[in-house]
Structures are given as C-alpha cells and as structure tokens.
Amino acid sequence: MFLVERELPVTIDIRSATMADTLSFPEIERSSGESFRTLPDLAWIADDDVMSAEAHQRYLATGIVLGAFDEERCVGFISAERCDDGVFHVWQMAVALSYQRQGIGAQLMRRLQELAGEQPLTLTTFREVVWNAPFYAALGFEVIAEEALSARLREVLADEGAHGIPVERRVAMRWARQLSRDS
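^ thats the sequence. predicted structure below, dont judge the formating
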C-alpha cells in the first residue's frame, strides 16, 4: 500500500496561493512529472505539456488553489475548480521531485478536503500508478464506475484522450465527506 503518512524533514506550510505563487507552478509540475520516467510506458509524460500559470490563476477566482511552502519557497500545489454541478474538480496536484514521498501531497489534499466542506471533490488519474489512484484511495476517494460517470467527467476523460492520454488506463474518482474514512 502507498504510504501517505511520513514525518516531514522540513516544515511545510499549506496556504492559499497567490497570483505570484502560480508563476512557479509549471516548473513544479514539470519537476513532479519526472517520477513518470520510472514507468517506461508512461515516461513520455515527463516531457508532456504542463498547465500554464494563467490556467491556475483562473482557478484562484473559481475554486481553491493551495501552495505547499518550505519557508517562502513553493514546492507543491493543488488547483481545484468549482464546477456548475457544485463539485470541486481537482485539475492538478504536483509536488517538486525533491520533496516527494514526504506526505506533502497528502497534506495538500487533506487541506482541500477541509476547505471543500460538504462539497464533493472529483479528479481523474491513472488507475494503476501507485502515486495516483492508490494514493487518492488512501485519502478517501472512491473510483466512479464507468456507467455512473457524469457528463462532465466523461468530457474530461474524452479531452484527456484527445490529448494522447491513454484513457483505458484512467479512472475518475470522487471524495465526499460522507464517503471519507477520516470523517
């Protein structure tokens, strides 16, 4: 099972991101993607496009954007948008490679879960990649059966496929306070 709890060697502060903070997000996402180089069939993801700072900045107004800071240096982030159906969709979470496997991603997600309150969260991720679906499952997310996917999530998955992501390896997941094992 994927570990989500580890003692941190550094003190990480999770707080709302600012416009200026989002300027570092593409670099953090690029660093985070380096983990995919360990998976030969998905190694190409390390060289794939990343979300622009401008995309994250839009989520500052329409959702929740958090940064993980080692002192004043942003080392991770999570960006979620409130969708028309009242659900927050997590578009991206990334932790710089040198800060991974220290519980920072779990801290980011738990803080987002707190801020979302009674609003559910959704995301799409790789089913079998250990730091993807198994990681999120450990944080209380559940896989959404294909026949239960909303039109919004079907569209997200189709868009991922159109951009070269192997959708047969993807899964949509949902977290809601009543589903959470932590609540």
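Residues 104-116 form the longest helix (13 residues).
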